């Protein structure tokens, strides 16, 4: 296949050119080709397909390192088929799937069931993140690692395996596992509040002091996120010091959905003091763009964990993104049914769909000159591919997978959740607009944002 008359983003530059794709990989890239070069490319084009791009922009496919594809015991919320179709139509060609499924993905048998269900039903490539098995059984951990999981996830307030993640001994044990097998630990950072604090917050809520989103922020405050971040980093540094570790055996820890100035600064301070620490973090689009002051017809549509914070937090985080200090974005795509989200605050689950709004809203910042394209491609594609060793992904280079999205700037239009491919037809962005068109999306050279496309995704496995 040939993509011609395109603007191609590669190696930090946008240049007019042509892509030749054969056998699912980028065979050749020619910038500003002469006629004789085009003739040679046509002769090498194995499937004889040619697509006229009309000057549209070709970017590497987006890699989303944090999503919840549900399925199995939660298929009413989402399935592998609907979730990955939503990703495919959004230009997201690789996603990582989290383990808080029903039943939770905390055993090799459950991982096998996951893989069996996913393989024939995924439109994009999927990496699986597991929970730790009960009692941290190392034989079972090895079995799970052999199945190719990307990493392990812990939830301090809602452990999937009844392990107390507030206990420093348990933290030391999983740091030892990460060190030994060089596998990342994904962390949902939150520390529990004292009961007296909870009671006072509930009392304020019952007295109608503040909105639901403000209450949710108070009930899951910034200080709780920061406290757990600090606790993990202290345990991390202690583990390295006590065991006299060399760099190659440092554990790998990744903080999911950092949402506050204080947590960001805590991590950034450590990264600046020792660049060898294997500590990373992501920020979600909603923690870059939204606050708990937004007005929604149903406030539960904006209920998410971590909560939407006060405005100063998303403004600060977006500034850090602009300056190149945030290197990873994860959507935390978390679909639920409208019925669940229509319950009262205490019964409505946290989370909302994120695949189909992420590129439309962050790329709008690029088209509106509020964020450079270079920064977008770094956080969306390049850095996640490098950090998680996703071979031949994240870049437009010869011999790399032809995972691509083609975008264009168009007149502004409103975001309509009823048009989403995900089962979750709601969004806290329902009143916003975008000027971004996702024109075509390719996974290994196959166009995947069409209704006729059959699932062509693969389960990707961790590469050391």
Describe the structure.
Strands 1, 2, 3, 4, 5, 13, 14 and 15 form an eight-stranded mixed β-sheet that branches. A seven-stranded parallel β-sheet has the order 6-7-8-9-10-11-12. By secondary structure, the chain is an alpha/beta fold. The protein is globular. The mean pLDDT is 96. The protein has two domains: 2-55, no CATH class; 61-392 and 409-431, Metal-dependent hydrolases (TIM Barrel, Alpha-Beta Barrel), CATH 3.20.20.140. The protein has 14 helices and 15 strands. It has helices spanning 35-44, 80-88, 108-118, 138-146, 168-181, 195-206, 212-219, 222-242, 261-273, 285-289, 311-322, 338-341, 358-367, 373-387; strands at 2-10, 13-22, 25-31, 50-52, 57-60, 62-67, 92-97, 125-131, 151-154, 184-187, 252-255, 279-281, 404-414, 433-443, 446-447. α5 (168-181) crosses α8 (222-242) and α6 (195-206) runs antiparallel to α7 (212-219). 33% of the residues lie in helices and 20% in strands.
Present the secondary structure layout.
Blueprint: E1 2-10, E2 13-22, E3 25-31, H1 35-44, E4 50-52, E5 57-60, E6 62-67, H2 80-88, E7 92-97, H3 108-118, E8 125-131, H4 138-146, E9 151-154, H5 168-181, E10 184-187, H6 195-206, H7 212-219, H8 222-242, E11 252-255, H9 261-273, E12 279-281, H10 285-289, H11 311-322, H12 338-341, H13 358-367, H14 373-387, E13 404-414, E14 433-443, E15 446-447
Parallel strand pairs: 1-4, 1-5, 6-7, 7-8, 8-9, 9-10, 10-11, 11-12
Antiparallel strand pairs: 1-2, 2-3, 5-13, 13-14, 14-15
Helix pairs in contact: 5-8, 6-7, 8-9
């Amino acid at each position: 296949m040939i993509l011609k008359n395109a603007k191609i983003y590669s190696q930090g530059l946008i240049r007019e050119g042509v892509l030749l794709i054969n056998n699912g990989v980028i065979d050749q890239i020619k910038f500003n080709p002469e006629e004789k070069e085009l003739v040679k490319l046509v002769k090498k084009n194995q499937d004889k397909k040619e697509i006229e791009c009309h000057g549209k922009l070709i970017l590497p496919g987006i890699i989303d390192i944090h999503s919840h594809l549900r399925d199995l015991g939660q298929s009413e919320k989402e399935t592998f088929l609907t979730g990955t179709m939503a990703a495919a139509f959004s230009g997201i060609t690789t996603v990582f799937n989290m383990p808080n499924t029903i039943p939770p993905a905390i055993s090799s048998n459950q991982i096998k069931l996951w893989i069996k269900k996913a393989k024939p039903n995924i439109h994009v490539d999927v990496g699986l993140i597991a929970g730790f098995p009960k009692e941290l059984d190392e034989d079972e951990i090895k079995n799970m690692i052999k199945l190719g999981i990307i990493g392990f996830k812990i939830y301090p307030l809602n452990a999937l395996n009844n392990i107390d993640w507030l206990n420093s001994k348990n933290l030391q044990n999983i740091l030892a596992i990460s060190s030994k097998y060089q596998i990342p630990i994904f962390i949902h950072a939150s520390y529990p509040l004292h009961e007296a604090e909870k009671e006072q917050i509930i009392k304020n809520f019952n007295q109608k002091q503040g909105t639901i989103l403000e209450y949710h922020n108070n009930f899951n405050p910034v200080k709780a996120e920061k406290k757990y971040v600090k606790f993990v980093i202290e345990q991390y540094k202690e583990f390295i010091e006590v065991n006299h570790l060399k760099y190659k055996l440092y554990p790998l820890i990744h903080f999911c959905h950092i949402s506050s100035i204080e947590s960001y600064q805590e991590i950034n301070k450590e990264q600046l003091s020792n660049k060898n620490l294997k500590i990373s973090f992501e920020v979600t689009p909603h923690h870059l763009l939204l606050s708990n002051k937004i007005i929604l017809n149903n406030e539960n549509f904006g209920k998410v964990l971590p909560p939407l914070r006060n405005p100063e937090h998303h403004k600060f985080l977006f500034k850090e993104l602009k300056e190149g200090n945030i290197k990873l974005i994860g959507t935390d795509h978390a679909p639920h049914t409208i019925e669940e989200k229509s319950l009262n605050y205490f019964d409505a689950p946290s989370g909302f769909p994120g695949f189909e709004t992420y590129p439309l809203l962050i790329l709008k910042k690029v088209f509106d000159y509020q964020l450079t394209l270079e920064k977008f491609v770094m956080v969306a594609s390049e850095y996640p591919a490098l950090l998680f060793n996703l071979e031949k992904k994240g870049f437009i280079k010869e011999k790399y997978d032809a995972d691509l999205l083609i975008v264009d700037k168009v007149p502004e239009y409103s975001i309509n959740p009823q048009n989403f491919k995900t089962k979750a037809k709601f969004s806290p962005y329902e009143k916003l607009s975008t000027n971004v068109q996702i024109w075509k999306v390719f996974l290994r050279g196959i166009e995947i944002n069409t209704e006729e496309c059959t699932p062509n995704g693969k389960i990707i496995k961790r590469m050391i």
